[in-house]
Design a protein that fits this description.
The complex is a heterodimer. Chain A is an alpha/beta fold. Chain A is 38% helix and 14% strand. Chain A contains 13 helices and 14 strands. In chain A, strand 2 and strand 3 form a beta hairpin. By secondary structure, chain B is mostly helical. Classes of the chains: A alpha/beta, B mainly alpha.
Chain lengths: 345, 390
């Protein structure tokens, strides 16, 4: 008996010491830029597998739309787009990873919502992809619209806005449905492909990527209704305004480059441009880079590294890829879309 | 002065005092560390503008839970959603404990069988089930149900109105109402009453030596409360038949594949370890007990039931307690195959509200509380079957 008491005491002390050790390392979130520079890499939270947005290609290199956003930031900071360390994250740990300082940017098809913006201690950068939630069904069901889905089973992912959107859409229309929730995206997709669910719901871009990997993509139709607004944006911690500016303006550089017809291939010719805004953006004139704490040629490096927005879009998700998405609202404001960069001055 | 110092030293060398002193010190240290952690976390969260507190529990949950035992609607609060999840966890755990014990008993006894084929099959069952991680089995059972059974629109109708498909098992059901609950309660009451009556009658028989037929009295004890309940509550026995709708079967009672796969997985893996525990318990009873029973004229089955198993229980109960606890905790793997248990509901809640620390605290507390409850019940039972030294 005495021995056991002694043991308790030791265990108690051990626990205490362990807890203390854990608590000594709080995330010092100040000056992300310094941390990133010291580390030599931008740590970027991404989706584990989401074709078109974040996936490992046959050589094991991570590619995709979300990856290119991280590469743009890396190019702005280091002049090299490849100084990125990818941290694959599930939907339910992504915000904690950012809050705790494990990652510097979250670029993971994350919807900008009021409550996320105002209760998580996080900030959202510019919207990089205007998406909306859609519903996909197998074409042999002959369903033409979401209103016909009464008493259908719908496969959803937890921890996203999709679960609530679905309820918000169906409840006022008095449509009863069965929701089957999966933690893991593979299980979620397979349950739909095997007929456990009649319908699959998530962002339309994501539906396109699920359809792209179906055995017969033509056997699935995405219904016309868009049941929610899903502005996808990179996320950063709230307490570092400078880092937010760096991420935001790296994205704006992509928009501006498309507007100014700069591409990865021709960006060098713009170094000799006579246009004063282009001169400021390219760092030939003025000191925009210094204001961000970056190299004068930061924006040039972004374009040289990843191209303009159109190139990023077309390379990863555009009409010539398996996803085959059209630009939709993700066009420049000059072409009737929503992409708009504040002026570089 | 010297006297006082002497007393202090004597106190210090007093074993009882020392034991208490160290324990107080240890508990104090743990509490201090806990307080430090708590204040540290609160301060850091406030610094990072992260909202804390449990107010979110009363906000509208706004998500559907696909399988519920209690009445839950998306317009209910997060707190109620969590309660629904807790009840789902308890439900699958209780069924798992009951089935795994029964199957474990059968398999454990079969392993000791003199029939080599039966013993070998039982051995195969145990080894196949306890040597593969449960999570893989859950995926396996789930995939088996979902990929081998036909989609719901081509459901097999094995008997009229009983459908089987990859969306589960659908049977006709009653439209459950409070009246039915009354009858069910009466049935349970009648069961207890029947057991009580039977015991009384047997005691009487032992005392007086008069042979009497027992079953009519027992049956009466069981049926009278039920009959009364039916007369008083007047439940509606209209049956709700499942029908094929455009997408799903509507109506009837529905056993979903997520629940089924989880229950099968939990039950079988716990049954395998329970079988081994029960076998070792039986083997721990000395051979002499078997021989003594036989010389009293008991056959093998009677000897097992009346002499060996009660003694084996002493060895069996403590490891079974851990087996039940791990079954209960393993039920949290439900999240992998889409059964809405506590962890899944808490995860959804955390994601929608962003309040991870609170969410994790809630589900850790619930698991801790329920685990301790299981331990207490099992320890009480263990105390009952333990060797009474006289």
């Amino acid at each position: 008996m005495k021995k056991i008491k002694g043991l308790k005491w030791v265990v108690g002390l051990g626990l205490a010491a362990g807890m203390a050790a854990v608590s000594v390392a709080p995330a010092n979130a100040q000056a992300t830029l310094d941390t990133v520079k010291k580390r030599g890499k931008v740590r970027c939270g991404v989706a584990p597998t989401s074709p078109g947005f974040s996936f490992a290609d046959d050589k094991g290199v991570r590619r995709g739309f979300d990856i290119d956003i991280c590469r743009a930031v890396s190019a702005a900071v280091f002049g090299d787009p490849d100084k990125v360390e990818h941290v694959p994250l599930n939907t339910n740990v992504r915000f904690q990873a950012l809050q705790s300082g494990e990652i510097d940017i979250l670029s993971r098809q994350t919807t900008w919502t009021f409550s996320r913006d105002n209760s998580l201690g996080l900030d959202f950068g510019p919207v990089v992809f205007y998406d909306g939630q859609g519903i996909m069904v197998t074409s042999k069901l002959g369903v033409k619209s979401a209103g016909e889905l009464s008493s259908a089973a719908v496969c959803v992912l937890p921890g996203t806005t999709t679960q609530q959107n679905l309820e918000d859409y169906f409840r006022p229309r008095k449509i009863k449905y069965e929701s089957v929730v999966f933690e893991n995206t593979d299980e979620w997709r397979n349950a739909y492909f095997n007929g456990r669910c009649d319908a699959l719901t998530t962002d339309r871009s994501d539906l396109a990527s699920v359809r792209a990997i179906a055995q017969d993509p033509a056997a699935h139709v995405i219904l016309p209704e868009t049941i929610s607004k899903e502005p996808l944006a990179p996320v950063i911690r709230q307490n570092d305004a400078n880092w937010k500016d760096i991420v935001s303006w790296s994205v704006f550089a992509l928009f501006a480059a498309e507007e100014m017809k700069m591409t990865q291939a021709n960006v060098d010719t713009f170094l000799k441009s006579q246009d004063p805004e282009i001169q400021r953006m390219m760092g030939v004139n003025g000191d925009l880079g210094k204001m961000l704490g970056l190299d004068a040629k930061w924006a040039y490096n972004v374009i040289k590294g990843v191209g303009n927005y159109a190139e990023v879009f077309d390379r990863n998700v555009g009409p010539n890829t398996k996803l085959g998405l059209s630009r939709g609202p993700n066009k420049l404001w000059t072409e009737g879309g929503l992409l708009y960069s504040p002026p570089f001055r | 002065m010297r006297h006082v110092a002497g007393r202090a030293t004597r106190l210090f060398y007093d074993l009882r005092f020392r034991a208490i002193f160290y324990q107080v010190l240890a508990v104090g240290a743990v509490i201090l560390v806990g307080l430090y952690l708590f204040s540290n976390v609160s301060r850091k969260l406030a610094e990072q503008n992260i909202v804390t507190g449990f107010d979110f529990l009363w906000r509208e949950a706004g998500f559907v839970i696909s399988q519920t035992l209690i009445d839950y609607k998306p317009t209910d609060s997060y707190a109620w959603a969590l309660v629904t999840g807790i009840i789902n966890t308890i439900w699958v755990s209780i069924l798992g404990v009951i089935f795994s014990t029964l199957i474990g008993l059968v398999v454990g006894v079969a392993r000791l069988s003199k029939n080599p084929l039966l013993a070998f099959l039982a051995f195969l069952f145990v080894e196949a089930l306890r040597n593969v991680p449960l999570l893989l089995y859950l995926f396996f059972w789930y995939a088996l149900i979902v990929t081998t059974l036909p989609p719901v629109r081509e459901a097999w109708e094995i008997v009229p109105s009983v459908f089987i498909s990859n969306s589960g098992f659908t049977i006709p059901s009653l439209n459950w109402s409070p009246a039915h609950s009354v009858v069910l309660g009466a049935l349970i009451l009648g069961g207890f009453l029947a057991i009580f009556v039977r015991r009384k009658l047997i005691a009487q028989r032992v005392e007086t030596g008069v042979e009497r037929v027992l079953w009519p009295w027992t049956a009466l004890a069981l049926l009278v409360p039920v009959a009364l309940a039916i007369l008083i509550a007047q439940p509606d026995f209209a049956i709700n038949f499942p029908e094929k709708g455009r997408f799903r079967l509507t109506g009837g009672a529905h056993l979903k594949p997520e629940f089924t796969a989880l229950l099968i997985g939990l039950t079988l893996s716990a049954a395998a370890s329970n079988a081994e525990t029960i076998r070792s318990g039986i083997l721990s009873v000395r051979k002499g007990q078997w021989e003594a029973s036989r010389s009293l004229g008991l056959d093998d089955r009677q000897a097992l039931r009346l002499v060996v198993l009660p003694q084996a229980l002493r060895v069996i109960i403590p490891p079974m307690t851990s087996a039940y606890l791990s079954l209960f905790k393993n039920s949290s793997l439900a999240i992998a195959i889409g059964y809405p248990d506590l962890v899944m509901v808490a995860n959804t809640t955390m994601n929608q509200t962003g309040q991870a620390i609170e969410g994790i605290a809630i589900f850790m507390l619930v698991y801790l509380g329920l685990s301790i409850t299981i331990s207490l019940i099992m320890n009480w039972y263990n105390g009952r079957v333990a060797l009474k030294e006289r």
